[in-house]
Design brief:
The complex is a heterodimer of chains A (700) and B (520). Chain A has 28 helices and 2 strands. By secondary structure, chain A is an all-alpha fold. In chain A, helix 11 packs antiparallel against helix 16. In chain A, 54% of the residues are buried. Chain B has one domain. Chain B has a two-stranded antiparallel ribbon. In chain B, strands 2-3 form a two-stranded antiparallel ribbon. The chains are: A mainly alpha (700), B mainly alpha (520). At the A-B interface, strand 1, helix 6, helix 7, helix 26 and helix 28 of A face helix 8, helix 10, helix 11, helix 13 and helix 15 of B.
């Protein structure tokens, strides 16, 4: 056993290598078997599933290994920056029971050797490697667990004809995601960050003959890439300033007490905000959230894995990973917290009025990611990471149940469903578990993690948060967070009621039937995880990544907050249930008037970006084309050719004409040319040079 | 006898030039109509250059590993070949072949491009004999530029590389081919005129400074550069001549317009070779001649070059977005990407120049792949109008995958060569901010090109390969055996240098480090 744990820790690159092997193998089988062949269809899913299961075992081994070494009291070779880990007892309520310790493992290799530039003492080599610390070890397990369950689910969800291509992309995605998580340097994280983006693009456009799918894929890629630009700048600035992009090196060099190096052209706050812009793109924060709801054009199992549980959490992961940078630049925390809280509220409000089951969940994902971002901004990375983990479980569960429902009812519109509870009991109950967890009802996972986030907001409201966040701003954030709780409960209840209760409102819903066994299996496992993840091990593991920053609040305050938030959630659920129980013919929300229009129109953010893309960017492209053809090419190039030709004609006429005219022309031309040359030379300073050269020549 | 001695003693560099050249002659001697024979001669001779180039790269890397590259400018030149018999004007002009790491990398690119180019044009029927002969002649010229250190022969090879293009486009082209061929040739000749003026100026200045010891040899010029080219005005104006002269070939704004028309009209293998290799001669000329000899000139014009290059990147990307013809999109994307080369060279840091040369290599392979693909799509769909296509991934998944790999490299996605190149250029240009404050703003502007590029590449992919399949393409074929050679090799190299850039970067760094030392 110990041998396995050590092996898993030392050879953690294998966790990434296994899906790579699956990817290569599936690709190879597709090529040798040709298209439409049985072999590829039969093999592809199982190759990936087996590889993922093995990788999951390794990831669990690596996690257990790190903990075992920590428990053994081993003197770690951990880099100094890891002293962030909490000492026993420091945590109070955050980590119940004896505090765990985790000993990190780091492996680094040169990827792109770049020698030192002139006058520098250190090489600027770009490095890659693996880093196992609590953050990456837990995240690896989460990614692999959800991925494995989604692959099993997809066995019957994706058509057999599409298996090879689907599992090929999925293998690539899982590789990229694991590479991102295990990265030991910011550069490597960026590399895999871009790769998950491509996989997302490929999988959103999986049904590419559908124009909407092809369009949504492009939108997702371009919008996140806009954010990536911010991350790219941050990476380059950090590289300029520190030369080495490994996290251990950066964390040792960046801190509140340390001065920024002179080579850094901007302040650390700017770098942190640029990094955050990257996170905003990937984690769909306002205003770069617009791609995520459209991404629901992809297969639902893709939405569950990529656009709910893992890839969209990469932004949160990035900020948590680079949290030392934000600690050193606390002004940036204001931006993070505000954008996060606003996104949570904003997206939840849009979620209220959505009619597409997947879109409700998409906006809910945006909103929950906003919560996590808010937690990070309030200097509570452990709480944010806790919520990331529980959210991965319950949101993946919700999406998979949505997939089962859509599969059965042949529609995504919740107004065309209804009465499905009787026909698909397993799906309905697991969906209820997921929904209640999302709303934050005790004792489901979402309750505990959301509670931790609200605690950090309360602390901020009392002025106990990060120094830069004033009590007023903290209060505003707390209010937004609590309003979000109410809205979340409401739209969850609305969705569940309309889908599962009442009478079927379409033919599809009438003839619906329960999902196949392999799909049910995934639902049940995820539901079990949602039931226990809030209090079993997960909170202690996620608390390892950083101590809570705010001073401990008085117990009565925490209880009041918990009680109040739970009350809000219950009110929201009952309200939603009461309003939609009878599936009214007109949307009750329509009574809101202009606000309802705003909700339906997605607060006009999408419209603005559509305008930007079609009326500005594409038009600029067309203008550039005509400008290049007309002005640069037509006027200058063809113009020169025309002028030369005309000049030839004129000269021919002159040289063929009578002598006096020729002489006049010649005199005029010589005069003009001489004037031009002298003028040009004196303007450009060539004349003195020529005179000097002539003098030198004369001396010889 | 070690590999290195073998390559040196048996004049590997001379063979690199000689083999394509004599293959061109051999093809001219083969009777008309023996199509397979031309192809085989072309494939064998270019295959030979590919093996030779790979051996050179392998050996040069071994030299680097063994730390036999001293790090001085004079010490990086290897495989010297300078026969006494080919020395003219009392040694002022010598047929002196030698090359460094960057030259070796470029030779590898050239050999790869021509080898795959031969396969991409395997099915060409019309006047195949003259076509292959001209193509091989052109390649002999390109190899010559990369391996010579004598500026006289540099220019000679440069012209050999440029001129066959006129015939290749004028005879085998499509569309308004006569116009395009003439425009391309005239504009490039204008550049040549500036270059030869620059070379002569270098010669004369060196002759003056050394009292009659003038030379066209780059190494000897570099040795006397500090005294001979000390005059600031001299540096400024001669550098400008080189910038504009070589810049034509590198597609700098506003003298880039020969490139889209030329590429659109040229036949497949010609486009591959021209965009893949020939356009790199511009950047390479600056790297080889202007940077080491005229560093003050670079300093004078740095801001102009960097700003024009940034404009190239963004403007080229926007122009590519507005095009309707597949070939024009690819051609304008070259204009955009070559801005990256100029920006990296002018920013003048180790990282940025490394990135620029890497971009020459990566863009070369990528654009060769692109033009091969466009040729194949055109050959099968009989149109290059983007709006007329759609859904081709259904019938031609192989083409779609290859196009995706090329496109993602163009976008600068990690895992492809394009990423390494762009990343290094941007990092290096940002880094130049330390000595030239404000440089990062230009670089940041250029980075906008990344986003624009992803828009036009993905829209192109969508409109050609995704969406609904028009019925007339229902029976379109995917790529076939010989065509696969061209696609698979280029795609594999794009991925290989993207995932493991170390060897290429080491070759390049070994040349750039000493360059920076003498630029001090």
């Amino acid at each position: 056993m110990t041998i396995f744990l050590t092996f898993a820790q030392q050879q953690s690159w294998l966790i990434v290598a296994l899906p790579v092997a699956a990817f290569l193998f599936i690709g190879f089988v597709i090529i040798i078997a040709g298209r439409g062949q049985e072999l590829a269809k039969r093999l592809a899913p199982w190759v990936l599933i087996v590889c993922l299961a093995a990788a999951l075992a390794l990831a669990l081994g690596a996690l257990a290994g790190g903990l075992a070494r920590g428990a053994g009291g081993e003197v770690s070779h951990a880099p100094e920056w890891f002293q962030l880990a909490p000492a026993a007892g420091e945590h109070g309520a955050a980590a119940p029971g004896a505090a765990l310790r985790f000993v990190p493992t780091e492996r680094i290799a040169d990827w792109l050797p770049l020698p030192a530039s002139m006058g520098e003492s250190f090489a600027r080599t770009l490095k890659i490697g693996t880093l196992l610390d609590p953050l990456s070890a837990v995240m690896l397990v989460v990614v692999l667990l959800v991925s494995l369950l989604v692959q099993i689910y997809s066995l019957s969800y994706i058509k057999r004809d599409e298996h090879p291509r689907f599992y090929l992309y999925m293998a690539l995605f899982t590789t990229a995601m694991l590479g991102l998580v295990i990265a030991s340097s910011l550069l490597q994280l960026f590399i895999f960050w871009e790769l998950v983006g491509v996989c997302s693009y490929l999988l959103i456009g999986f049904w590419y003959p559908k124009p909407e799918a092809a369009k949504a894929a492009i939108k997702a890629f371009v919008v996140t890439r806009f954010g990536d630009l911010g991350l790219l700048f941050a990476v380059i600035f950090l590289w300029m300033g520190y030369g080495d992009l490994t996290f251990s090196h950066l964390a040792a060099q960046i801190g509140p007490a340390m001065a920024a190096p002179a080579a850094l052209p901007v302040s650390l706050t700017v770098v942190a905000i640029l990094l955050f812009i990257g996170a905003c793109g990937k984690s769909a924060q306002f205003p770069l959230h617009i791609w995520l709801p459209d991404a629901m054009e992809g297969p639902t199992s893709v939405s569950a894995l990529i656009h709910a549980a893992t890839m969209v959490a990469a932004g949160i992961y990035l900020v948590a990973r680079m949290f030392f940078l934000f600690e050193a630049a606390p002004m940036a925390l204001i931006v993070v917290a505000t954008v996060g809280a606003f996104t949570a509220l904003f997206a939840a409000s849009i979620g209220l009025a959505q009619t597409d089951m997947k879109k409700v969940m998409a906006y809910s994902t945006v909103s929950q990611l906003g919560y996590m971002m808010m937690g990070l901004g309030l200097a509570a990375p452990a709480a944010a990471f806790f919520h990331l983990t529980t959210h991965a479980f319950f949101k993946a569960l919700l999406f998979l149940t949505a997939g089962a429902v859509i599969h059965a009812a042949h529609t995504q519109n919740i107004w065309e469903m209804g009465g499905l509870f009787k026909k698909m009991k397993v799906t309905a109950i697991t969906c209820l578990i997921g929904g209640l967890a999302l709303a934050g009802i005790f004792p489901l996972a979402g309750f505990f993690s959301k509670d931790k986030l609200l605690e950090s907001a309360l602390a901020a409201a009392m002025g106990l948060g990060p120094e830069t966040i004033s009590a007023g701003l903290g209060g505003l954030i707390l209010l937004m967070a609590l309003a979000t709780v109410l809205m979340t409960a409401f739209y969850t209840a609305r969705m569940w009621t309309l889908v599962f209760l009442g009478e079927p409102r379409s033919d599809g819903a009438k003839h619906a039937h329960e999902a196949p066994r392999s799909m049910q299996l995934s639902l049940l496992v995820l539901a079990a995880l949602t039931l226990v993840a809030g209090f079993l091990l997960v909170p202690r593991l996620t608390a390892l990544i950083a101590p809570a920053h705010h001073a401990a609040l008085a117990p009565w305050m925490i209880w009041t907050l918990t009680g109040g938030a739970s009350l809000l959630a219950v009110v929201g659920i009952l309200w939603g249930y009461a309003a939609y129980r009878r599936a009214p013919a007109t949307e009750p929300l329509a009574k809101l008037g202009w606000a309802y229009t705003g909700l339906v129109k997605l607060w006009w953010v999408d419209a603005f970006f559509t305008w930007l893309a079609h009326r500005v960017v594409l038009v600029l492209g067309r203008r550039a084309r005509t400008f290049d053809k007309g002005v640069v090419d037509g006027l200058f190039v063809d113009g020169t050719a025309w002028l030369t030709g005309r000049l030839g004609v004129v000269m021919r006429r002159v040289s063929a004409g009578p002598l006096p005219g020729q002489l006049q022309y010649a005199a005029l031309v010589i005069f003009l040319l001489a004037a031009l040359v002298i003028l040009g030379m004196s303007l450009t300073g060539l004349l003195p040079l020529l005179v000097k050269t002539a003098q030198i020549g004369g001396m010889r | 006898m070690s590999l290195h001695d073998l390559l040196t003693q048996y004049a590997a560099l001379a063979w690199l030039v000689l083999v394509p050249f004599s293959a061109a002659l051999v093809i001219m001697l083969i009777p008309r109509g023996w199509h397979l024979t031309y192809r085989l001669v072309a494939a064998v001779s270019t295959g030979f250059t590919l093996i030779l180039a790979a051996l050179l790269a392998w050996d040069y890397l071994a030299l680097i590993q063994a730390e036999k590259i001293p790090g001085t400018f004079q010490g990086i030149w290897h495989y010297a070949f300078a026969p006494q018999a080919m020395s003219f004007m009392g040694g002022k002009i010598t047929f002196h072949l030698a090359t460094d790491g960057a030259g070796v990398a470029m030779c590898l690119l050239t050999a790869l491009t021509i080898f795959t180019g031969v396969f991409a044009s395997w099915t060409l029927q019309e006047r195949a004999k003259e076509y292959y002969a001209l193509l091989l002649l052109l390649v002999a010229g390109v190899f010559g530029v990369f391996v010579t250190v004598d500026l006289f022969f540099f220019f000679l090879f440069y012209e050999i590389a440029v001129l066959p293009m006129y015939l290749l486009i004028g005879i085998w082209g499509t569309g308004q081919k006569e116009y395009s061929a003439m425009k391309l040739t005239l504009m490039l000749l204008m550049g040549s005129a500036l270059i030869i003026v620059g070379f002569l100026a270098l010669f004369v200045a060196a002759d003056k400074a050394t009292m009659g010891g003038g030379t066209f040899n780059l190494l000897q010029l570099a040795a006397v550069a500090k005294e001979a080219f000390a005059d600031a005005q001299f540096q400024r104006w001669v550098f400008l001549a080189f910038y504009l002269g070589f810049g034509v070939l590198a597609g700098i704004f506003p003298i880039h317009t020969w490139s889209p028309d030329g590429h659109a009209s040229a036949p497949t293998a010609t486009s591959m070779l021209h965009a893949g290799v020939l356009m790199k001669l511009g950047g390479f000329g600056l790297l080889r001649v202007a940077l080491p000899l005229l560093p003050e000139g670079l300093a004078d014009w740095r801001w102009l070059i960097v700003i024009v290059a940034a404009w190239n990147i963004v403007y080229g990307a926007f122009s590519a977005m507005g095009q309707k013809d597949l070939k024009y999109v690819v051609a304008y994307s070259s204009v955009s990407h070559l801005g990256m080369v100029m920006m990296g060279l002018a920013a003048g840091t180790l990282t940025s120049i490394n990135g620029a040369v890497f971009q020459m290599f990566a863009h070369g392979v990528m654009t060769a792949l692109f033009f091969a693909l466009v040729g194949l799509v055109y050959g099968k769909a009989h149109t290059r109008d983007i709006d007329a296509m759609g859904g081709l991934a259904r019938v031609a998944p192989g083409l779609a995958v290859a196009f995706m790999i090329g496109g993602l490299s163009s976008v600068g996605l990690p895992g492809t060569g394009g990423f390494v190149a762009e990343f290094l250029v941007f990092m290096g240009t940002f880094q130049a901010n330390v000595s030239h404050p404000g440089m990062w703003i230009v670089a940041a502007f250029a980075c906008l090109g990344i986003v624009i590029t992803s828009i036009y590449v993905l829209r192109l992919l969508k409109r050609v390969f995704f969406g609904a399949l028009p019925p007339k393409y229902a029976h379109m074929e995917d790529a076939k055996t010989t065509e696969w050679v061209a696609l698979a090799m280029n795609a594999a190299v794009i991925l290989a240098v993207g995932i493991w850039p170390k060897p290429i970067i080491e070759l390049i760094t070994s040349a750039v480090m000493p360059l920076l030392t003498i630029m001090q």
